[in-house]
Known about the structure:
Layout: E1 4-7, H1 13-16, E2 21-23, E3 27-31, E4 39-43, E5 49-55, E6 60-66, H2 74-91, E7 101-106, E8 115-120, E9 123-128, H3 131-135, H4 137-148, E10 154-157, E11 174-177, E12 184-187, E13 190-193, H5 209-218, E14 223-227, H6 233-240, E15 245-250, H7 253-266, E16 273-277, H8 280-286, E17 293-296, H9 308-325, E18 330-336, H10 343-357, E19 361-367, E20 386-392
Parallel strand pairs: 1-4, 9-10, 14-15, 14-17, 15-16, 17-18
Antiparallel strand pairs: 1-3, 2-6, 4-5, 5-6, 7-8, 8-9, 10-11, 12-13, 18-20, 19-20
Helix pairs in contact: 2-4, 5-6, 6-7, 9-10
Amino acid sequence: MEKAVILKKGKEESLHRYHPWIFSGAIQRIEGKPEEGDIVTVYTNDRQFIARGHVQVGSIAVRVLTFNNEPVDQSFWNRRIATAHDLRERTGISSREDNNTYRLVHGEGDNLPGLVIDIYGDTAVMQAHSVGMHVNRMQIADALKEVLGDKIKNIYYKSETTLPYKADISKDNGYIMGGNASNIATEYGLKFHIDWLRGQKTGFFVDQRENRSLLEKYAKGRKLLNMFCYTGGFSIYALRGGAEIVHSVDSSSKAIDLTNANAELNFPGDKRHTAYAEDAFDFLDRMGNNYNLIILDPPAFAKHRDSLRNALIGYRRLNAKAIEKIQPGGILFTFSCSQVVSKENFRTAVFTAAAMAKRNVRILHQLTQPADHPVSIYHPEGEYLKGLVLYVE
């Protein structure tokens, strides 16, 4: 019997608009007893084909892979990876001589919901956010080999922390191909140690590349504070940009070790950089008016809608502290990477923070994720990274 999902009458409207999620409340019945991660065919209530995708447990019951009546086989995965690679070629990010770090697959933005693949030199780091992508990981790896050929020598699978915690599957990380990989990658001429074995995400925050490059242009002669620094990306760009001093802060001592290693890798013996393993709010409380360029790039304060209110309080408090203490004429780069925090939510939180700090503040730039993190026009939820560059008088 075919594994199929039959929708309730009228619940196909979002699929006619090519939205890639089917919620559990839209389903009339499920046929064929599919297991989580299986590929199912989706029909309207009057049995008209409408989509095919991965079935899963939860409020999002199906992640749509295709709206065409086509098999999801090896040639399907090859075509999707080839299309994603073609986009990176056309935007130039995968063919620059000074850069071998980029995102090859960005979930729904590349019509592959639940899948992330980042490229670090000759290593691809694959991350599944759905059981379906976990089930198909070997076919996806074969597609990577087919499309990228000799450009890729290692494929590392890193999904232990991203797969649903209740899913009854083996979640061990490990190499699907290769294993003798250098963990140093290049981003716009700077070198970074990438910890894909134990680090956050795939080992590096690839999505801030263009924003780091913008920061470099503002860094000359400034005293910079990089909060939630993780691997120190913003700090290293600031050093190259000619900052007078650069202080990096993160609550994780492992992150501070990695930041120091990256500073030494690019600017050995440079005394302008100091790193502190300390809670961000504690550091902001005790610091004086010592900085005129501050970066606030915290982890997601809200991963679910029920935590939105507390997240907005956190953004207000964090930004108010920074705006209050930054020197006159200072520049603040502030970000939210929480998908459930809208652009409007974030702007309102920052505006409120500015009013709380009683400073005159102007917007210089409104930032988002780069072109290798594309947003499907049919899935606006994919625009998760929001940023503002503020001038504080």
